[in-house]
Amino acid sequence: MDREGYVKSNGTIDQRRLEEDFIKKFKVDFLILMQSFPSGVEGQCWLRAITRKHRKSFHPVRHLLFIYFLGESVDTIEQYANKRYSPFGEEPYLCLNPAAEHFLQPVITNLKVTRCYDTKRPVGTFSCACGFVYSRKGPDKTEEDKTNIGRIKMLGDTWLSKLHQLVEIEQLSYKACSKILKVDTKTIIKYSKQRNSKPMNKENHIKSDLKQKWLDLINQYPILSRTELRKKDPSLYMRIYRNDKEWLKEHSPVVKVNRVTNKRVDWVQRDLHILGMVKKAVEDISAKEKPVRITVSSIGKMINNKSLLEKRVNKLPNTMKYIESVKENTTNFQKRRISWAIDQLKDEELEVWKIMRKAGISERFYSGLEIEIKRQIISAKQKF
C-alpha cells in the first residue's frame, strides 16, 4: 500500500483514492456481479475494512480481487504480512546528543509520530533516556536522513552537564562550545546564563491579600454560590484555586440544595410548544447541506430533548402526528440522497457508481434503486 502511494503520512489509508482506483480497475458491472462493489459507507464498506485491522472475515474472492489490484499474487503477498507503516524505519533510533557517550548510536526506542499540519508529512519525535529530545519531518529515505535534526525539543541533563563542564571547568569560549555541542552560540549563552542564575523560589501559598479579596467578595454578595462568585472575578478565583485549593474549599459558600416543588405540567400547552420547536427542527434538518434523515431521533437531537419524544409519546399527540407525517423511511431518504449526490456531481460525468458512492448507499440497495438513479440522471441532464 505504501509502495502504491495509498498510505498517508499518519499511517492511514487514502480510502477515497483507493476506492476510485479500485472501481476504475475492475469496472462497476463486474464488481456488482462479484458482489464486491465498495459502497463507500463507513462501517459497511468491505474495501475499507480489509485495509484496516481485521475484526471480521472476508470472502476469498474479495481477497483475490484486492491482491490482484495491488499487482501481487498469493505467493508474493505473504512478504508483507505483519509489517506496519514505519516512516522512520525500525527501532532503535540514533541518539543525536553530542554530549552523550552514546552519540550517533542506536539506543532510542521512544518514538512518537504525528503529522505536519502544513505539509501533511510525518513528524517523528525521538526521546532518549539521556533527556535529549529531537524531531524531524519524514519519511526517512536515505541513511543520512537518520542523522538529521529538524528541531531540538529538549536538551536534557546530560547536555546541560556537559555545557557546565565546557564553560565553567574547561573555560572554553562560547564559540568553541557551540561547535562541540552542535548548536548556535546564542543557545550556549542562553543556557550557560540560566545555569549560573539563582533559581527563583516558588511560593507555596498565595498572598494573604488575595484571600482577603475573596472573603470581601463573599461579604459583598452573601447570597451567591461559589460558581456565581467565580464569575464575578474569574482571575482571582483561579489564582487562589491553583495555589491553595483546600483554603478555597473551606472559605466558599456552602452548596445550596434547591427544593423543587412538584408542579403539574400543562401537557396541552407543552404539546403546542414542542410542536413549534419540532417544525423548526425539521426545517433546519431539511436545509442542511448534506442530507440527514428526518427521524424521531434526529429531531430529538435537534431540539435537545430526545427522551421527551421517545418517552412521552402519549402526552404529545399533535407533535407526534406531525412527526409521523414528515419522517422518512429508508427508501425516501435514499432517493433524497441520490438527488443531492447528482446535484453535487453536476460538473462531472454522471455515472451510477459515482452517484452511489457520493450518496453513501450500500451496494445491496443497487438493484432496488437502479431505475430511480437513471431516472434522476436523465432529469438532471435535461435540467443542466
What does this structure look like?
The protein has 384 residues and is of the alpha+beta class. Helix content is 49%, strand content 7%. It is built from 18 helices and six strands. Residues 198-206 have low confidence and may be disordered.
Radius of gyration, whole Å? 33 Å
Spatial sequence of strands, sheet with the most strands: 3-4-5-6
Order of helices and strands: HHHHEEEEEEHHHHHHHHHHHHHH
What percent of residues adopt helix (DSSP H or I)?
40-55%
Strand fraction equals 5-15%
How many β strands by DSSP? 6
| Helix/strand class | alpha+beta
Q: For the terminal residues, how far apart are their CA atoms?
A: 39 Å
Mean pLDDT across the residues is 82
Runs with pLDDT <50, length 5+?
A: 198-206
Largest sheet: 4 strands, antiparallel
Number of helices: 18
What overall form do the CA principal axes indicate? Answer: flat
In brief:
This protein has 384 residues and is of the alpha+beta class. The protein is built from 18 helices and six strands. The chain is flat, with a radius of gyration of 33 Å.
What key phrases describe this protein's structure?
384 residues, 49% helix, two-stranded antiparallel sheet, 18 helices, alpha+beta, 4-stranded antiparallel sheet
List the helices and strands and how they pair.
Elements: H1 15-26, H2 28-33, H3 46-50, H4 60-69, E1 93-94, E2 106-108, E3 110-115, E4 122-127, E5 133-137, E6 151-154, H5 156-169, H6 174-181, H7 185-196, H8 208-220, H9 226-232, H10 234-243, H11 245-250, H12 267-286, H13 296-302, H14 306-311, H15 317-326, H16 330-344, H17 352-359, H18 366-383
Antiparallel strand pairs: 1-2, 3-4, 4-5, 5-6
Helix pairs in contact: 5-7, 6-7, 8-10, 9-10, 12-13, 12-15, 16-17, 16-18
